[in-house]
Amino acid sequence: MIILGIDVGGSGIKGAPVDVSTGRLVHDRFRLVTPPGAHPGDVAATVRAVTEQFSWRGPIGLAMPFRVKEGVAKTAANIDDSWIGTNARKLFAKATGCKVAVINDADAAGLAEITFGAGKDHRGTVLVLTVGTGIGSSLFVNSRLVPNTELGHLRMRGTIAEAWAANSARKRDALTWRAWAERFQAYLSYAEFLLDPDLIVLGGGISRPKRTAQYLHLLKTSAELVPALLQNEAGIIGAACAARKLRK
To answer: How many angstroms separate the CA atoms of 48 and 91, rounded?
Structure first.
């Protein structure tokens, strides 16, 4: 079963057809720059351009940087606030002429990891964290998604956690990897206290092997702690997986 997965981010919109039985991209990714301001109409037009690149007419899964319920955006992160209350599923369906499923971007990355990556076949509670400009989160209990957790917005040190402990904070404050690991350790300990996961998967930009060598040995968790496996393809793969039911 081949489904088009599209990952919409603050800087780029990228997509590829995905074999959702294996988690493999069946074509090279195609990427366009996210239009300035990321207004709904402009993003929809860019998503249409991605689908046209593949001459696509089947189901589409879209990973979006907001909480989503029944296809409707409930928040907005790195995109325009006018998304809040927008029925994204209807917007993209109209723009592309295709059936569309919409999922939070961190949930999409987690779905990919739990289905094909570091969390595959893992029972119990699995927390997937995508760490880059912000901190995205997805939570699974016995492989079932608990959607829209947004644990990057936990309050810490007088701000939200991602403003203090994301990889962007390391760069902004010119921290060594050891100094950043101390911050991120505090965040991990907080998340463990709240959720008591059995496995924590670290994704996003910090999951690349050259990066994990700098800090992973400095972190201590009760849960098993592992890097994600799918890296930059996770959002696309997870978005496609979210649209599997549209084939039925």
So the answer is: 11
- Cβ distance 196 to 125 under 8 Å? yes
Measured in degrees and rounded to the nearest 5, phi and psi for residue 7 equal: -110, 115
Paired tokens of 22: 């294996």
Residues 6+ apart with CB under 8 A from 161: 135, 151, 152, 153, 154, 155, 187, 190
| Rounded Cα–Cα distance for residues 102 and 100 (Å) | 7
Question: Which pTM was predicted?
Answer: 0.94
**Bridge pairing between strands 100-104 and 60-64:** parallel
Q: Read off the tokens for 240.
A: 């496609």
Cα–Cα distance list, 195 to 94, 98, 122, 162, 190 (Å) = 39, 38, 16, 18, 9
Please count the other Cβ atoms lying within 10 Å of the Cβ belonging to residue 171: 11
CA angle 172, 176, 177 (to 5 degrees): 105
Residues 132-147 have pLDDT tens digits of: 989 999 999 999 999 9
- Asked if residues 240 and 109 have their Cβ atoms less than 8 Å apart, the reply is no
Residue 201 near residue 127 (C-beta atoms within 8 A) = yes
Please calculate the CA angle 88-81-171 and round it to the nearest 5 degrees: 110
